[in-house]
Amino acid sequence: MLKQGSAPRVKASLSAAILLGLLSATPGMAAPTHGSSLDARIDALSSEVDRLEGARAIRKLQRAFGYYMDRGLWDEAADLFADAGSIEIGMDGVYVGKPRIRDYLQRLGGGRPGLMWGQLNEWLQLQPVVNLSADGTSAKARWRDLTMFGQFQKSAAWRGGIYENGYVNEGGVWKIASLHLYVNFVAPFEQGWARLKPADADWRSDVAKAFPPDRPPTMAYRTFPDPQLVPFHYPNPVTGKRFTGTRP
Amino acid sequence: MRWGFRIAVRIPSLKGRGKGWVMRRAGLDAPSDAISTNDRQGLWSAQTRAPTPAPSLSGRGVTWRYGLLALAAATALPAHAQSNADLEAKLAQLSQRADRLKDLDAIENLQAAYGYYFDKALWGEVADLFTTAGSFEYGQRGVYIGKAHIRRALLLLGPEGQAKGWLNEHMQLQPIITVAPDGRSAKARWRGMVQIARPNQNGQWGEGTYENDYVKEGGVWKIAKLHFYVTGFTDYDLGWTKSAIPAEGPSAVIPPDRPPTEIYRAYPGVYIPPFDYVHPVTGKPIPVTPPADSVLGRK
């Protein structure tokens, strides 16, 4: 297990403290019986703190992604991913690896580093449900997407969606392993979501058509007004049961 | 020579002391580099790292350290027993504080999960997040008590499950969570933005404030009370300069178990949902006087 904190050092120092206290006074005395139990408790606490830190680091990581996207900092956004990381938005398919992720994001954002004058590109990252794996080296999180797209005096739109993302801790650093944004709607500001027509059979972005992905979409679905249910990575937090879609 | 360790835990700065950080020394004083160097994304980011206090003879850690050495030099057994008891107590305290942080994360996950189920009208999943005696109150619709009543009340907000043309987005944002010191209950205030669509109707924006209670039963956090105070709803096309949709009252078809706990009118009315937490800087309760309302007869 990868440690994020200073657990080994803590453990070593504490053992040293106990041993020194003992040895300096009465050489030859029997070893303390409580030492190992204290060590075990410190290890357990240290591992809990690692997980708490991890859950916070993952929130920070995903929020950082949003702030980079807002301003067209595609390199920075792509650098949040693991080397084997992937991104998937809507029906565009899966782009794998930092260079491909970077190029895809830049094309989505207008084809150049940064934003152009009059461009609005606000990717809000909201409402996280974060769960670490049992060994604390990977995690999953669900997030809500609310995005404002716009070009001054030309267009304005809202997007709503759900992220189901994977994260991995590599060498003590949390990275995005897979980002999957399930797009629920992209609605023009003027007409709003209530007048949206059903999506075309092929509702890939123009970017995906001109710059094909490495893999096809992992799941087929349609946007609002069609119903859409993004799978939950976690069971119901109270009952512990997975939602299967069939309930009495 | 200095040796030892330091454990620091971040807790929300509800008391407003320091800068959202509380450092506690566990055991012996330590060189400043004993703080995790593995800090690229963890708690120890440069901008939030608390300043390392200079070692000082007035510090508890220092006193304790010399105390330990003196005792160890004098008689080994009492010193050893003393050090273990002291360490045990400190460890127990730290462990308790880590538990409170875990509680915060669990409650954050719980309320966010509520929102995701609510969006998709998975009313059974929503109702299951409540305690057996849990209560649900949405705007001026009154209070529904118990999972069965809550699940039925939710049908007032739309049919169960997914249906074409229904949008029911209830965002769960901006939490202020306060866990009781014993870790068995908690309260939280949240912001709810709402996006509504119904087949062949105009869209709506909504906004409101949650003031919720939670309890931990058998190690699992559950919603004991959910109260969504509706700030206002507005027609999407007209916007809030022109449209203010009144809050729905109690249903005659699925009547509530209790009337609304507080009577107020939504926007353009200006009601202040009471705050469950004390002022984070002054530490004093935040007094709220409901605004005068001639229609409701409130002076």
Which chain pair shows the most residues in contact? A-B, 68 and 78 residues
Structural class label of chain B: alpha+beta
C-alpha end-to-end distance of chain B: 70 Å
Tally of helical segments of chain B: 4
Task: Tell me briefly what this model is.
Chain A is an alpha+beta fold and 248 residues long.
Protein described:
The complex is a heterodimer of chains A (248) and B (299). Chain A has 5 helices and 6 strands. With 248 residues, chain A is an alpha+beta fold. Chain A has a 6-stranded mixed β-sheet with strand order 2-1-6-5-4-3. In chain A, a hairpin with a 3-residue loop joins β4 (138-151) and β5. The radius of gyration of chain A is 24 Å and the shape is globular. In chain B, α1 (60-74) packs antiparallel against α2 (76-119). In chain B, β7 and β8 (204-217) form a beta hairpin. Chain B is 24% helix and 24% strand. Chain B has 4 helices and 9 strands, in the order ββαααββαβββββ. Chain B has helices at 60-74, 76-119, 123-127, 147-154, and strands at 7-9, 22-24, 130-138, 143-145, 167-170, 173-179, 185-197, 204-217, 220-235. The N and C termini of chain B lie far apart (70 Å). Chain B has 299 residues and is α+β, with helices and mostly antiparallel strands. In chain B, the strands form 2 sheets. In chain B, strands 3, 4, 5, 6, 7, 8 and 9 form a 7-stranded mixed β-sheet that branches. In chain B, strands 1-2 form a two-stranded antiparallel sheet.
